[in-house]
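S.,

Sequence below, as promised.
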Amino acid sequence: MARQLDEQIAGRFAVGRRLRVLDVGMGQGTQALRLARAGHQVTGVERDATMIAAARDALAGQPEGIRERMRIVEGDGRDTGVHFLPGSFDVVLCHGVLMYIEEPDPLLAGLARMLAPGGLLSLVVRNGDALALRPGQHGDWAGALASFDTVNYRNRLGLDVRADRLATLTAKLAGIGAPLHTWYGVRIFTDTAPDGAPVPADLDTLLAAEERAGRTDPYRAIAALLHLCGVRG
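The prediction came back faster than expected:
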């Protein structure tokens, strides 16, 4: 996913330009820190105290120049209008957040408002068109059958959450003024790997295979996650 995001940034913005990045639901700050290291000015928004503490600990260990480029805001992603002016950011990330929100439309509209004209919106969501694949691969035939007619599922943390269908999100992005520019699949070959599985010795080859499949039909359509990139008109 990071490689996909870098590809979109490189294709949209001048080389060396320092971008204003907003990461909504930044978690422990993995992507926010990566982009700050790349020279961008990054603001991370997170409401979970444990995640904020982890992000701050990670940031504290960075050189001063990187610490100065990253700001952490405690808050809900649905309240971006409270913290920031419209059009304040060149890139807005919202990765792994929509599945936890029952009604995501207000959040999506708020994210689009944060983008400057030509800005990039990067979403990572659970793929509602492929929910049957995981239970089917584990031999849970009843679960696979039930997954065809819903966008609700139980994740590995035991939480009841929701997925998004590509066609539905494509229409929503067009409606909020950030129409879909391109999309990728994420976790195609590796989704069934057990938690805590050791990192394979041929990691670079694995990543190359995932990256190739993530941009290739029909593989990307059955990915566990979708990475959608919209552009503010």
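The domain at 1-232 is CATH 3.40.50.150 (Rossmann fold).

Coffee later?
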